[in-house]
């Protein structure tokens, strides 16, 4: 397996101490979660949407709406085991695949041995990466897990260059009892945002596409020029 080009670490532990992680985020720091994640991911959208939703269907939707091009620089925000990073590398993009979990990044590097991917350990609520450094950003459900989704979205908007694409897949608020339970800090601390709230966190961006199956939404935003 070729070695990854770089593995950088910008996890600011002092900042992390001031901003404790959710239980869901902490569960991703455990090696067994990382070992099982790809298997869960392959089936999760079928369970969550209530219809056949293989990874290839999600990849096809992403490629059709976002059209990543060779040479573009993309960020995969909360890559876990590298699903979107792999699609982007396959499209010829330069990819920064970021996550705050070392075991997830280790599993991703094994699963996606692509030299075009830089694996980056960081908390994307405050990454320290240069402003406007990406043509596109993918977010596969990280919005549901991050501790402060407002800070997370503000940071992604900061990192997106004018005219750039932001792709979000997340579970929307349904008001159901299961979501209410999983939102409690002791049971995960997950967030299930309302799409209108998400749009308000991205004032420099326009939502160009939205498609929803059950509680799962896919949204494409474009940053103004
Ligand atoms: C639901 S999983 C993402 C799945 C992946 N994007 C995909 O499409 O298969 C959430 C991932 O985001 C990471 N994560 C959560 N909050 C984060 C943050 N603030 N910064 C960086 N990574 C984060 C977790 O460690 C976890 O691996």
Automatic annotation (TrEMBL):
Biological process terms in GO annotation: methylation
Keyword terms of this UniProt record: Methyltransferase, Transferase
Entry annotated with the keyword Transferase: yes
Residue ranges annotated for the Methyltransferase type domain, each copy included: 75-167
Molecular functions per Gene Ontology: methyltransferase activity
CDD domains (alphabetical): AdoMet_MTases
Cited SUPFAM superfamilies: S-adenosyl-L-methionine-dependent methyltransferases
InterPro entries in UniProt: Methyltransf_11 (IPR013216), SAM-dependent_MTases_sf (IPR029063)
Protein name, UniProt field: Class I SAM-dependent methyltransferase
Organism: Deinococcus rhizophilus
């Amino acid at each position: 397996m070729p070695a990854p080009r770089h593995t950088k670490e910008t996890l600011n532990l002092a900042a992390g101490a001031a901003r404790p992680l959710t239980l869901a985020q902490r569960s991703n720091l455990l090696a067994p979660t990382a070992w099982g994640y790809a298997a869960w991911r392959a089936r999760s959208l079928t369970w969550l949407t209530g219809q056949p939703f293989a990874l290839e269907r999600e990849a096809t939707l992403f490629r059709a709406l976002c059209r990543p091009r060779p040479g573009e620089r993309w960020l995969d925000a909360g890559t876990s085991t590298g699903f979107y990073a792999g699609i982007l590398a396959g499209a010829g993009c330069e990819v920064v695949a970021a996550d705050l979990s070392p075991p997830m990044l280790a599993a991703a590097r094994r699963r996606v041995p692509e030299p075009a991917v830089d694996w980056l350990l960081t908390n994307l609520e405050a990454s320290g990466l240069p402003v406007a450094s990406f043509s596109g950003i993918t977010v596969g459900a990280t919005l549901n897990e991050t501790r402060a989704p407002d800070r997370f979205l503000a940071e992604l908007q900061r990192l997106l260059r004018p005219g750039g694409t932001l792709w979000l897949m997340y579970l929307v608020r349904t008001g159901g009892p299961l979501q209410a339970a999983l939102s409690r800090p002791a049971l995960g601390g997950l967030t299930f945002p309302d799409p209108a709230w998400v749009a308000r966190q991205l004032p420099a961006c326009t939502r160009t596409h939205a498609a929803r199956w059950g509680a799962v939404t896919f949204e494409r935003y474009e940053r103004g020029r």
